[in-house]
Amino acid sequence: MQKDVFQTIPDAGVVKIIGARQNNLKGIDLDLPLGKLNVISGPSGSGKSSLAFDTIYAEGQRRYVETFSPYTRQFLERMDKPKVDEIRGIPPAIAIEQSNNVKTTRSTVGTMTEINDYLKILMPRVARAYCPSCSREIRPETAKTIVDQVMAQFGGEALLITFNVPVPAKTAPKEFFDFLQKQGYLRVWLENAVHRTDAAPDVKRLPALVPVIQDRVTISEENRTRITEALETALSFGKGKIAFIRSEKREAHPFSSGWHCAHCDINITPPSPGLFSFNNPLGACPVCRGFGRSIGIDLDRAIPDRSRSIYQGVVKPFQTENGRECQRDLLKCAAEKEIDIHTPFEELPKSDQDWVLFGDDPKVRGTELWENGRWYGVRGFFDWLETKSYKMHVRVLLSRYRSYNLCSACHGGRFQPATLNFKLAGHTLPDLAVMPVARLADVIAKS
Q1: N or C: which end of the chain has fewer CB within 10 A?
Q2: In what helix (H) or strand (E) does residue 214 lie, and over which residues does it extend?
Q3: How many CA atoms lie within 13 A of 339 on its CB side?
Q4: Sign of the torsion formed by the C-alpha atoms of 395, 400, 405 and 408
Q5: What are the start-end ranges of the H helices in 155-276?
Q6: 320 φ, ψ (degrees, to nearest 5)
């Protein structure tokens, strides 16, 4: 009797399996220590999966699901009770099965392990936005947050609250002032001074945007309600953009309520999961489309042996039957430019090498240079070939000199510039993507 009572007490730190008979298991008894790596090995058909998945995992998952209410259990996957006499001390379990994941040329360790999916959801919530021009932090402001900042920074000072009104083209100052006066606004801030709209305008020309004074108020707790009301009105009429002006010091302190840098007047793309995924058109680099590299002509393949001279045929595609005319053009133009055609290419000055590769003017199309009898460069030759790529033999020729190159726009980061405006602990998403997982976890934990 005492032995039966003792056996009902589960062993601490051990999963005890008694009489497992699932599938081809023959009444196996087994103790598995918790907190350690347990490996089940054996020949095919020996019952490894029956023990791991159909017995241990099935019972752990089944008991975990039973802890939920009947309403919740109807939405969860339920497994049948395994054929086993008893399992003691089993915790909730998860199972990761082997599978052949679909891979694409965009696949990375981050996409295969779904770490990228967590990052693209995390970034919109915790990353901070910065202006690409002045590097100031950008965050959507409200009337309350703006008032709090102004109260902390300019307490006790008398400030002007202004918003900008666009001036139609060829509008006379008097005509514009009359319009503002009819709207109830009697003062504007122009040329670092206050001007009244109900008097003869003393400015000859108006800027594209005129700061209209919504209120002049002393920054204090007693005036908080008045400041907030004036600020809300100014944000409404100013389309989310306002400024506090210190008239005595002639300083303007702009604020905005959207994803906008008030100092540089630059809008940035609002954060969303798609912006932080290179598999989404919203976040992918527009040049390489999220691949991090692009296929193009490799000039090193076009000039594989730089110990050859121009005369000896250093440009490989110019030595074919179809390229001989280009070789003659190169020799002719090189003579006119007084470039030594007998010196090995690698010993030529950098300027002469660049001339061979990119022609007389890299900014002008190769066909235009050719029509004017000027040197179009090896690059211009391949650009011309690209226009003939509908021909099979041209595509075959181009394929010999193509290679994958690091994207010149994102430098392999895969994301478009708008994504780089957001940083987590000072790191952009491409920086986070190449971090070791241990360091990435530490950065996220400290953010």
Answers
A1: N
A2: strand 209-218
A3: 26
A4: negative
A5: 173-182, 224-237
A6: -85, 170
CA 217 to chain centre: 42
Q: Pick from 168, 259, 254, 147: which is nearest to 211 by CA?
A: 254
74-89 burial code (b ≥16 CB/10 A, e <16):
eeeeeeeebbbeebee
- Report the pLDDT value the prediction gives residue 132, as an integer from 0 to 100: 94
Tokens of 278: 């290179």
6: its two tokens = 């003792």
User: How many other CB atoms are found less than 10 A from the CB of residue 117?
Assistant: 13
Q: pLDDT tens-digit profile of 28-41?
A: 898 989 888 889 88
**Residue type at 295 in one-letter notation:** I
pLDDT at 282 over 60: yes
Looking at residue 100, its pLDDT comes to: 61
Question: CA–CA distance from 197 to each of 142, 178, 181, 230 (Å)?
Answer: 30, 7, 6, 19
| Those residues with Cβ within 8 angstroms of residue 7's Cβ, 6 or more apart along the chain or in another chain | none
| Count of residues in the chain | 447
Strand partners, 51: none
Whole-number Å distance between alpha carbons of 321 and 215? 80
Rounded to an integer, what distance in angstroms lies between the CA atom of residue 29 and that of residue 98?
26
Query: 155-176 pLDDT, tens per residue?
Result: 999 999 999 999 998 899 999 9
Higher pLDDT, 305 or 112: 305
Residue partners of 317: CB distance under 8 A and separation at least 6: 302, 323, 326, 378, 381, 397, 401
- pLDDT score of 60: 87
Contact between residue 106 and residue 279 where contact means Cβ atoms under 8 Å apart: yes
What per-residue confidence (pLDDT) applies to 377? 92
What is the per-residue pLDDT across 334-352, written as a single tens digit (0 to 9) for each? 999 999 999 999 999 999 9
Specify the pLDDT at position 114: 78
Query: What residues form DSSP beta bridges with 187?
Result: 196
86-115 confidence digits (pLDDT tens):
898 888 887 877 666 656 667 777 787 778
User: What kind and span of H or E run contains 196?
Assistant: strand 193-196
Distances in Å between the alpha carbon of 12 and those of 17, 34, 56, 67, 86? 14, 9, 17, 22, 16
Mean pLDDT of the chain: 88
Residue 223's SS3 state is helix
Q: Is the dihedral of CA 409, 410, 415, 416 positive or negative?
A: negative
Distance between CA atoms of 228 and 213, rounded to whole angstroms? 15
Residue 6 has pLDDT above 70, yes or no: no
